[in-house]
Amino acid sequence: MRIKAITIIFGLVVLTTLATSAQAINSKAGTAAYTFLKIGIGAKSQAMGGAFVGLADDATALYYNPAGLTSLSGEALVFDELLDKPLNPTPKNRFTASYLNYLVDFQYGFLGYTRQLDSASAVGASISYQNYGSFTRLDRDGTELGTFGASDFAFGLTYSKRFAPRFSAGVTGKFISEKVDTYSSNGMAVDLGLMYLVTPDASTRAGLAITNLGAQLKGLSETHKDKLPTKIAAGISHHLKGLPLLFAGELGKPFDNDFYGALGVELVSLKPFFLRLGWNSQAKDYKVGAGNDTMAGFSGGFGVVYKMYQIDYSYSSYADVGSVHRISVEAGF
Predict the structure, then answer these.
(1) What is the tens place of the pLDDT at every residue in 215-253?
(2) Which of 45, 42, 46, 50 minimizes the C-alpha distance to 15?
(3) What's the rounded Cα separation, in Å, for the pair 320 and 287?
(4) Are 25 and 88 in contact, with CB atoms under 8 Å apart?
(5) Please, are residues 263 and 295 in contact by the beta-carbon 8 Å criterion?
(6) Residue 79, Ramachandran bin (φ over 0: left; ψ between -120 and 50: alpha; else beta)
(7) pTM score
(8) Which fold has domain 2-332?
(9) Would you give the DSSP letter of residue 221?
(10) Domains of the chain: which residue ranges?
């Protein structure tokens, strides 16, 4: 058991090292369309730095790794202003709702529902929406001509299947659309996920996910189509035996950006309370060179469980660019 723990910790250290070194490659920001699909879901996962591909143990698996749905043994509701976590292992269905006032006051929401069909399969559906607010329309001379709006929308259907006692796979098909004033675009994408329970009790998990793999069918311009924010990520999670700690690590590569790494830890000894800390190297994209940039990427939060309900809170720092607060609620029924 000691060797296994050392192996897991070594893996997390490797993830940190790779992510830190990747920051020196380049500092370009992402250039793909539909960037709202990159916004993390769930206060639990975001408090842990977004390292959730290798854990995916609640309804937000719809977003991170669809293969995780088969490990959800119950029905629950997530009301996320970005909140979450599986509350009770007995229900068969989960519903999740999220709201987030993101950076520069973009309004973001997420709805998701999952249902266990049997002990080896599950289905789900999700909706993502972002409103960019109102903008002033100007003519070539700078004269104001009223206002216009912009928004994004995505709808997904998920299926997850356990093919062996410890191995599961999942797929999500998504329709994506964007509207800017009178212009609109749309695309199709899939999320593919794998989950392997390294130990029979699921205390150690490994996951792999490819998200937003697809194409834009119609661009905002008739002559140009943008790429989607496709990403591949691998993660591990481990609940230490004898210690009330859950560790999670993730290494990912967005097709439009550098490698990133994420680390998270959850203290579970205070049940029904949970404390969480995390770090994500992607925050380097928001650094502006000020002294406070050293805190970019760090996150933290807590969760409380009461009967069939759970509420979670997370705080994520983007240094001088700002910070993001997330709240989520999950309920079983």
Answers:
(1) 999 988 888 888 999 999 999 999 988 889 999 999 999
(2) 50
(3) 7
(4) no
(5) no
(6) beta
(7) 0.83
(8) Porin (2.40.160)
(9) B
(10) 2-332
